[in-house]
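Researcher: I'm comparing several assemblies side by side, and this is the next one on my list. It has 1055 residues spread over two chains. Same procedure as the others: predict the full complex and return the structure.
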Amino acid sequence: MFREVSSKINFVQLEEDILRFWKEQGIFDESIKIRKEGPHYAFYEGPPTANGSPGVHHVLSRLYKDAVCRYKTMKGYHVPRKAGWDTHGLPVELEVENSLALTSKAQIEEYGVARFNDRCRQSAFKYIKEWEAMTERLGCWLDMEHPYITLDNSYIESCWWITKQLWEKGLIYQGYKVTPHCARCGTSLSSHEVALGYRDDAEDPSVYIKFRVEPSPISETAKQKRLYELSGGKATYLLAWTTTPWTLPGNTALAVAPDADYAVVKVDDGYLILADALLEQAGLSGYKVVKEVKGSDLAGVHYEPLYNNIDIRYVKGDEKAYRVIEGDFVSLEEGTGIVHIAPAYGEIDFEVGERENLPLVHTVELNGTVTTNLVTGFTPKAREYIQRSEAPVTLRPARGKLDLPGAGKFVKDADKDIIDNLKSRGLLFRSERITHTYPFCWRCQSPLLYYAKQTWYIRTTGVKKELISGNAEINWYPDYIKHGRFGDWLEHNVDWAFSRERYWGTPLNIWCCEACGTSEFPTYECVGSLDELRAQSNLSGLTAALDLHRPYVDEITFACPKCGGRMQRVPEVIDCWFDSGAMPVAQWHYPFENEDKFTQNFPADFICEAVDQTRGWFYSLHSISTLLFNRPCFKNVICLGHVVDAQGEKMSKSKGNVIDPRAVINNYGADALRWYMLVSTPGEDNHRFSTKMLEETIRKFFLTLWNTYSFFSLYANIDCFIPQPLTVDSDQPKAFTELDRWIISELNRLVSEVSKLMDGYNPTSAARRIEGFVDNLSNWYVRRNRRRFWKSENDADKLAAYTTLYRCLVTLCQLLAPFVPFIAEELYQNLCRAVDPRARESVHLTDFPVADQAEINDRLNSNVELAMKISSLGRAARAKAGIKVRQPLGKAVVNVGAEGEKKALESLATEVMEEINVKQLVILGEAKEGEESRCHPDMPDYSVANDAKYWVAVSIELPPELIAEGVSRELVRHLQNMRRNAKFDITDHIITYYQTKEPCIKQVINAFADYIKQETLSQELINGLPPDGTYGEKHRIANGEVSLAIKQANAKQTS
RNA sequence: GGGCCAUUAGCUCAGUUGGUUAGAGCACGGUCCUGAUAAGACCGGGGUCUGUGGUUCGAAUCCACAAUGGCCCA
């Protein structure tokens, strides 16, 4: 016997029971254990940053991962799923800073790095609990008891090993480059962090600065002379434009577009030079142009520095600074066509500086204030030269007093002082304010400064070719990411700035000796493991209670192998993206242990995250793997879209449109959430989340499925059906009807399609096919076959129907298991475990169904489709004539147009006749020669409906015998409703009483007595007053009134 | 400023390599069916398939440009 299934169902309660069952029985572990001998399927969990409560957008990737891994498990693969947590990084630090009301690095250090990092550690774990609870409740199976955690010493040690490998390959270097720098946080931001903080409405100065051309031809070039002669001794200025006045003291060159035309314009106090095309924008269109020159004519011209007391150190072969250079980046759409170059404060500026051997001048401190000292810069050539020089050279920049305007102020505040100062010196042509796009720190809202400083780099450009060729081996879903977003990113690869001047992160494992060599180029040691560290001579600071984090690691020093001085760790920590990208190695503490596990799980068969990870985790995984092993570390990757709200807007705390997944699960259940998110939108698109649509999903899919299941178990119990291995082709083939064969054919087709789609990493399409099948099963197969389940004989036909429906439901619950694991389990427990003690304990331990191709009958599938179509047209024809479906009609004429279709329909004629309630079906095939065209049927006494291909005409003649039959069905329907209203059991036999003055109704009851009794389980139809205690209703049928009453035939026994 | 993706009914989405009259669900109005159904069926209103050009006998589909939105990058 099957457990009784209520048609009303509380999915939330059901899921909690099943969760308990899984836990108690250890089903997840078992599902992995039983596949131990199967082929291995490696899955990498992208570690969530545990710096906040999980949102509904985190649910999406979790359940995609779960669906795929469950599917593969059922397909026989061994799929361990190790959880992981990303615990380091700025986001965690920020959270702690906020809670402690700290606002600067100085305050953190005052608070104490040890205490601060301790807080960070706690903060990371606090959120992990919430994530675990959500993951479990969602039914996502993940080994959260043995996760990898990026803050573990063992994890850090593996990261150190990786760094050492790269160090030895010469792929790590310290570069002096321009990076987006947050002066408040005191660190560089990675490119993806910068992307978080662009603002379109940033207000900044827009200033036009006059750079005076050298009045005397100190450089004896012809160009210089010509300009000098032209001015007739009067001052000539190169007009440049900038929105960052604070960078002007760092200026060492001006750039022009070589092919552009430049005008020399006469103004009151001399001449201005700027691009022709920008005269009007600069407000100079009314002035006289005295000469036109090409940009290339200006190249090499020298001008006076804005601040003439800057001490620049040149070496042999260096060209002087403060000259005009050519640049292909010079815009002729804004500014003046003359670009101010400050190599310390712009990426392009820096590149130009390297190319042109320009000095790099710093006038701003790392905390963002204008310096009170002067810092001398060096060109790349100067650095090389000094490095090679045998004579010791003091490389520390000479610091001398320099009174810059706004000294000591934050640069954005100093802008005004600089502008005022230039104005007072007559070097300001124009000054206003504009709004434009500018990056701000996503954490603290400070404006970012592009700032040249020393940062540790991984030379990813050194393996660019390998990155690209490795990408070719990866299957991307959707595929366009491969050559689009990701491929593009690889094509434009730049070296990875992977150090952070922060506190809470994997410490960079490089030690530095300040004693030997010069202070600018000291001896470095990269330590690749704890053993290596312990083996250093004269080691100190390594304590028993090992914590590799700052500040403890900073205390570890050892003797310099070259000079015996102290080696001190560099202050930086490693970018947390490096942590997560290291997980293929570090999750196993490879190579220090678990070599077998590492090998078995490398590369991953499958990873899945949202699209923003193309530049995040997908990239850090791919680059580290390529650097280390010269091959990609994942084969298949699903790239998901983002979850947005019902209006398509991004969910954010500030908008208040964030949805808490726990609330959704508690209201609707995890399965509903899972199915809705998988089915509603293809993975790569943005997912609009609306609880209204989720409710619809429950009604449309879950309740339909549930009721089919409850229908089956209800009748199967009544008939004591015991599932037997009876198939369409076996023991009693004749008992199976066309519709049985059809639904089994559809079932096999479904199995085949779902497998294929899942193999192609497309759960959405797979789930949509299942939805289609459930609709067919419920609204065609079950509806058409109800009578076979109701009838009283327990014959082969009935058994065939049960067997068919049972098989559909069992197969369905297995197909559903990867998507909606709870309801699938419920079905399985009742349909399989309840009747077969040898069955596996859980649906998730069973094998995924395999389609039997022999049972797929495409012709049958299209035949039934045709029958559905014709039935639909038949109903339309009836509706046109206004005749209820309950009223039988004499004849329907159907035109299908082709002989094949005629035969097809003939084989299903009974179904169509019952469906549209006609006594006879005339099917017209292909029009024979000489026959009239059947395109426009115009048949008297018929009602016709048609579509492009077919038409159906139903006879609207109503002879008395048909009316009588209609009345009988009317009576049956009322009695059935009364049974239900009276809350009788479905199997109760009844006695029916009726009273009517209408002779025709009496006649009908007499003529159709057997039919009415059979349909309503009436033992007797008694014409007369009902006794007390019966349930009665009055109805109008065919313009006559009839009083009906019913009572249970064996009422005493049932109560 | 650049790249990728999207734009189909009021809403959410289908629409195979170009090929009859562009579909489904929800919502709305009407009718019907029903002892599995918070279900279902039929009819109806609702579409310049974002726009403009182009290729073609034929374009929602291919191409170009533009607009809007999302994501990524500057």
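Model: For your comparison table: The two ends of chain A are 23 Å apart (CA to CA).
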